[in-house]
Fold each of these.
Amino acid sequence: MKTDDFDFTLPEKLIAQTPLDKRDASRLLVLDKKTGKIEHKHFKDIINYLNKDDVLVLNDTKVMPARLYGVKETTEAVVEILMLKEVSKNTWECLTKPAKRIKQGTVITFGNNLLKAKCVEIKDEGIRVFELIYQGILNEILDELGQMPLPPYIHEKLEDQSRYQTVYAKEIGSAAAPTAGLHFTNELLDKIKEKGIKIVFITLHVGLGTFRPVNVSDVTKHKMHSEFYKMDQKTADILNRAKKNHHQIISVGTTTTRTLETVMHNYNTFKECSGWTDIFIYPGFKFKAIDKLITNFHLPKSTLVMLVSALAGKENIMNAYKEALKEEYRFFSFGDSMLIK
C-alpha cells in the first residue's frame, strides 16, 4: 500500500484560515460507508443522524499555549520550542527550531528568566528533551509566555484564542486541538442530550503525530509517535452497555477513534485505563469500537486520510474528497466537517 495512493490536489484557497462566526454553521458532508452515497448538510443537522441511546464520544483534551520563544543563554540567539509531551516531572519533549544549534546542556531562557529550559537529551526529527526550571505554577507561566500552537498551514492571526479549543475542553496537555469537536456548541450538545443520546468523554493529548507527514512510500513502514490517553470507568460502563444493546457508538474525531480502538484492541472491552498509544489505523484495520465517525477534511497523504479510508473504504473517501473539492468545502482545522455513517 503506497502513500501516494492517498494523495489529492488541494487548492490553497480551500484551506480555512479562520473559524466561522458560528461553530455549528460549518458544512457537513455525510458519507454512507456501505453505499458511498453523499449528502450535503450543515453541522447543526448532525442531530438528525443520531438516535436515542446512541453514545457520542468526545475528546476533552485542552490545548496548552505550548509554543514558546526564548533566547540561548550564551549567544541570545532566538529559539522556538513547541512542548509536546511531559516525559517525567518538569521534563518535556519539545519540537525545537533551530534544533541543530541546541546541544546537550544548552540553556534557553524565556520571559526575563521567568522560565528556563535546559537540554538534557538529543532526539531525531528536531526533538529535544528539556528540563524546565521555574518557580510557581507552570500552566500560569505558559498562559503568560506561551502562544497557541496553530498548525503551520494557518497564516492568519487568530483573534479569539478560545476558537482553537472545543467548548468542552478540560484536561490540559495537547499540542493541537482535536478539531472535529470544534463544530459543537453548548446549545447543540444540550439538544443532543435532550434527544436521549448519551455523551461521554475520553482524553487523548494530541502530540507530534499531528505535525508529522508520512515520509515513507510504503504506508506500513510509517511509525506513529505515541500519545497519552485515558478512559474512566463511567465512560467504559456506558460504552459497554451500548455494545451489549447494539446501540451505535459515534466517535468525534480521529483522536477519539484512536483511543477507543486502542482500548478495545488491548482489552477486547472498554475499561478504566490509561497509557500511551501509537496505534496506526489504515485500510485493512478491523474496527472493534466505533460505528460512525465525525471528522474534518484532512491533509493529502496523511495518517488521518488513511484512518478514514480504513473505515469507509479508500474509493469512497477519495470520491467524497473529490466531491468536497468540487463543492469548495473548507479544509483542515477551521474547515468543514464530514460524517461517516
Note: Helices lie at 138-145, 186-194, 233-244, 254-267, 303-312, 314-326.
Amino acid sequence: MKTSDFYYDLPEELIAQTPIEQRDTSRLMTVERETGVVEHHHFYDLPDFLRPGDCLILNNSRVLPARLLGQRLPGGGACEVLLLIDRGDKTWECLVRPGRKMRTGARLSFGDGILTAEVVGEVEGGNRLVRFDYEGIFLEVLERLGKMPLPPYIKEELQDRERYQTVYSKVVGSAAAPTAGLHFTPELLEKIAAMGVGIGYVTLHVGLGTFRPVKEENVTDHEMHSEFCTVPQETADLINRTKAGGGRVICVGTTSCRTLESWANEDGTMEAKAGWTNIYIYPGYRFKVMDGLVTNFHLPESTLVMLVSAFAGRENVLAAYEEAVKERYRFFSFGDAMFLR
C-alpha cells in the first residue's frame, strides 16, 4: 500500500482560514460505509442520524496557548518556542526556532522577562528540552503570554481563541484542537442527550505529529507519534452498556477513535485505562469498538485519511472527498464535517 494511494487534489481556496460564525451551521456530509452513498446536510442535522441507545464519545482535551514569541539572551534576537510535552520539573519538550541558535545553554525571555527559560537538552528528532522560570502558576502565565498553535495551513490570525476550543474542553494539554468537536454547541449536545443518546468523554492530548506528513513511500514504513490518552471508568461503563444494548458507539474525531481502539479488548468491551498510544490505523485494520465516526476533512496522504479509509473504504472516502471538493466544502481544522455511518 503506497502513501500516494491516499492523495487527492485540493484547491487551496477550500482550506478554511477562519471559523464559521455559528459552530453548528457548518456543513455535514454523511457517507454510508457499505455503499459509499453521500448526502449533504448541516451539522445541526446530526441528531437525525442518531438513535436512542447510541453513544457519542468526545475528546475533552483543551488546547494550551502553547506558542511563545520572545527574545534570545543576550542580544535580543527573536525566537519562537512551541510547547509539546510536559516533562516535569518546569521542563517541556518543545519545537524551537531558529533551531541553530537555540542549542543547549541558550537563554530566552518572554513578555519582557515575565517568563524566562533555558534550553537544557536536545532530543531525538531535533526537539529541545526547555526549562522555564516564572512567578505564580505556569498555566496563568501562558494565558497571558501564549498564542494558539494554529496548524501551518492557517495563515489568518485567530480573533477569538475560544473558537479553537471545543465547548466541552476541560483537560489542558493539547498542542492542537480535536477539531471534529468544534461543530458542537451546548444546545446541540443537550438535544442529543435528551434523545436518549449517551455522551461520554475521553482525553487524548493532541500532538503536532498529527500534522506531520507521511514521507515514506510505503504506508507501513511510517512511524507514528505517541500521545497520552485516558478512558475514565464512567466512559468505559457507558460503552459497555451501549454495546450490550445493541447501540452504536460513535466517535467524535479521530482522536476519540484512536483512544478507544488503543485500549479496547478484542471483544469490543472497554476498561478504564490511561497511557501513551502510538496506534496507527490504516486499511486492513479491524475495528474493535467504533461503529460510527464524526470527523473533519483531512490532509491528502495523511495518517488521518488512512484511518478514515480503514473505516469506510479507500474508494468510498476518496469519492466522498472528490464530491466535497466539487460541492465547495470547507476543509481541515475550521472546515466542515462528515459522518461515516
Note: The radius of gyration is 20 Å.
